[in-house]
């Protein structure tokens, strides 16, 4: 996997993935785009949400929505690394069994989400879930 980050102006950069997708990264608060740390947090949420939906669909569950609410704590002093991340999965569907949702979240967090597997080596990670009927 390859990517490129190019300076635009000030503290604003454009990232381009090998597949051609572009994002704006901005070190200004607020800026023209999310900060690099915000992108890391969004990557964790996206990776785990993809897993949860995929696992539930493979087990023939009717999923109509999935959101991940992320809350992160950072160190006070530089480097301001994440010290804790909590992911709350809000899964919506038709008659979703709690056992299946719990299993999907656990499998994502413990086995499949590559972003979380990297982060858990340095960050306290926790998760929870809610099930909503469509």
UniProtKB/TrEMBL annotation:
InterPro entries per record: KH_dom-like_a/b (IPR015946), OsmC/Ohr_fam (IPR003718), OsmC/Ohrsf (IPR036102)
Residue stretches in coiled coil: none
Domain of life: Bacteria
Cross-referenced NCBIfam families: PRK10738.1
Protein's recorded name: Redox protein
